[in-house]
Amino acid sequence: MTGIRYHQGKLHSDGVPLAALGEGLGTPLYVYSADAILERYGRLEKAFARLEPGIRYAVKANSNRAILRLLRHRGAGFDLVSGGELERALQAGGDPSNFVFAGVGKQDWEIQKALHAQVGIFNIESEGEIDRIEFHAQKTGRKTQVALRLNPDVDARTHEYISTGKEENKFGIPLSQASPLVDRIHRSAQLELVSYHVHLGSLLLDPGPFLEAAGRVMAFMDADEAHRRGVRTYDTGGGFGIRGNFEEPLALDELAEGFEELLLPRGLRLLLEPGRYLVGNAGCLLTRVLERKQRKTKDFLIVDASMSELIRPALYDAVHEIVPLREGLEPLEKPVDVVGPVCESADFLGKDRKLPALERGAFLAVLTAGAYGFSMASRYNTRTLPAEVLTRGDHALLIRRRETLEHIFQNEVEEEWK
Ligand code: LLP
Question: Is the entire prediction scored with pTM above 0.90?
Fold first, then answer.
């Protein structure tokens, strides 16, 4: 039994009943299935096998070091966007030659740290960054491998906040401006162009945009010998979409076939930066009912998780399935909004849901919360960050203790102004 599923009528994470975790560790609680993460890793490896894929897990999706360790033992490298994420990946024992260091605005200390760690590839996003990486790289006495992040102006057909590959987005370098930057890198004694990088956005449900973007980059490479000189990989970024807990909307085989047609004749390997695909459906947010408020057309179910722990519904109108821990209970006729205790009307986890009658103290699981859940959590309303648990088979491991109020106050100074 793998993932967040009902087993003998009770919701489990792998072989562990969620109710036992909630009772023992309290709520709100993030629970992740290691078995599901590894299973999905295997699916990606298999689908893209002919392209000798380099899987660079996008750490931003869920950056707990226990998850990074799990993935690096399975062979993953990491896609990193900050010095903090780099530090996590290093602490998790990752091999820096399998890291890509990305990010639209890299600070000098971050560039220096990444050079010092000898990360595999810098994904460059602007001309100024070429100068700065070159400047810092001079001191290392080594050649630094770089990729250009291209903006292919392809519509990812996703929520506008997570679309990144259109001309009007801040990311990457438009194809029309890339040629002089390629020449600039070739002229550098410090830098070596080894890859092109594209990331169109997150939650893509169809292979079309991925392949359209790759096609445009291949045309750019074909247009000029200088554009392909030294280039060994094509990095398609992340964005592999998921839907409900058990659905597989993106046709990976079709996507892989399309990449094979484009990359194999050109002798290119594929790099992938999946985040959500690996961890999204492998996790849930466990919460407990605090109160029910009855209104004319619907009720409010007030739970102890909120937009502070899971901001995706408030920020992107994301729909996360919310289920009780016991299977097969009859839902009530009247719909409910599942809302948190935070002082905002945007603080909802789900709207107009059909749920059974639930008493105060009953557990609910917000599904598909393994990606961009904890990693985007905040302390808004002075709420402590929740605990996180990883399961594998019948075992559960606490991978983050619940924060305490002392943690929150520790960096606040005690000075008093009268
Ligand atoms: N590579 C790059 C360069 C990225 O910017 C991202 C995500 C990824 C890979 C991983 O994308 P994924 O495979 O997870 O879709 N907070 C939003 C998602 C933001 C994604 C940002 N970049 C959400 O909760 O939907």
Answer: yes
